[in-house]
Amino acid sequence: MILSSTRQMLSESLKPIREEGLRLGLVPTMGYLHEGHLSLVEIAQKRSDFLAVSIFVNPLQFGPGEDLERYPRDLERDLALLRDLGVDLVFSPTFEEMYPDGEPPVVVDPGPMGQRLCGEHRPGHFRGVLTAVARLFGLFHPQVAVFGQKDYQQAILIRNMVRELEMGVEIALGPIVREEDGLALSSRNVYLSAELRADALGLSRSLRAVQRAFGEGTRSGVKLGGILRREVENHPLLQLQYGEIVHPETLVPLETVVPGSVVALAAHCGPTRLIDNHILEA
Question: Catalytic residue positions?
Answer without folding.
Answer: 37
